[in-house]
Amino acid sequence: MIKPSMTKEEVLATINECATQTGHVPSFPELVKLTKVRRRAIFTHFGTYTEALRACGLERRGPGYEVSPREMFRDWATVTRDLGMVPSMGDYGLKGRYSVRPFLRCYRGWRQVAVGMREYIQKEGLEGEWGDVLDIITRFFETGGKRGWTSGAGMEKPKFMQDGPVYGEPLMHAVMSHGPTNEMGVLFLFATMAQELGFKVMRVQAAFPDCEAMRRVEPGLWQKSRIEFEKESRNFLAHMHPASHCDLIVCWIHNWKECPVEVLELSKLVKFSNGEGPTNLSPADLRRLSADENGGFHRGDAEARGKP
């Protein structure tokens, strides 16, 4: 039997060191490229790369990475606690950290997720920590699975089509008809507005940060800006991105008051179909509005922390 070239402790130390150097949890191809860790060492000591990351206290999310029952429960329960009711699949799709697919694979239907989560609380003895969530689940089934939402007298919440797409608030925009509901929608909307906002995109990538762009800072003067796209600015904190490696967060909703990074809030720069928002903006007007302290850019927090 061929022995692995690295011990278990050496593999863990190398993964943590690589994560620190890159500013994010490395993918397995990144780890192999940047370090001396090889597949045999991962397989021998941990079985899978996901288990190796878990042993390091790290987590890498995305297609191809397994979500454990514990991770699924904690995130679903957190969304339930925040909403004060059992989330629909649409609610979780908007507010959860993971896609709905692991839940559907595990429970064979969205309604069964609440059943499974109730059983998990009882099996793991989590009534003390998650007793409020257990109460919400209990009320949900006592009312026949109704979530208690109404939009007017005699009207119940419209039925959510589990296999149907979800759209944001309708916009009066030349290219995008509805507001973004995810990070990719934010990226696309930014792309349609980049020229008017004074950006020239150089690079878009899957790794952090999402984008590198040249930004016009004064007439005739440009600087490179490292940009991260988020549906909500607070997601930057939840994803544990290092603020020192990012110059600008582009988001749809800015909900992180203490954010140390400059934020561009796109929802402040578009007009909605209900009449809300700025109207008849020329490119020059859009740049002035975005640069104003009451517009889409939020510079106050970054400047207070000494960020240029």
Order of helices and strands: HHHHHHHHHEEHEEEHEEHEH
- Overall number of structural domains: 3
Helix % is: 40-55%
Which spans have pLDDT < 50 for at least 5 consecutive residues?
A: 149-155, 291-295, 300-308
Morphology call: flat
Strand content: 5-15%
The first-to-last residue Cα distance is: 57 Å
Number of strands: 8
> Radius of gyration in whole Å, from Cα?
23 Å
Tally the helices: what do you get? Answer: 13
What structural class results from the helix and strand content?
alpha/beta
| Major beta sheet summary | 6 strands, mixed
**Strand order, largest beta sheet:** 3-4-5-6-7-8
Mean pLDDT: 81
Question: In words, what does this structure look like?
Answer:
The chain has helices at residues 8-22, 28-34, 39-45, 49-56, 69-83, 89-95, 101-107, 111-124, 127-142, 183-197, 235-238, 283-291, 300-304, and strands at residues 150-152, 155-156, 199-204, 211-218, 221-232, 248-253, 262-265, 297-298. By secondary structure, it is an alpha/beta fold. The chain folds into 3 domains: 8-56, Arc Repressor Mutant, subunit A (Orthogonal Bundle), CATH 1.10.10; 69-149; 183-304, no CATH class. The strands form 2 sheets. The chain has a 6-stranded mixed β-sheet with strand order 3-4-5-6-7-8. A two-stranded antiparallel sheet has the order 1-2. Strand 3 (199-204) and strand 4 (211-218) form a beta hairpin. Helix 1 crosses helix 4 (49-56). The termini are far apart.
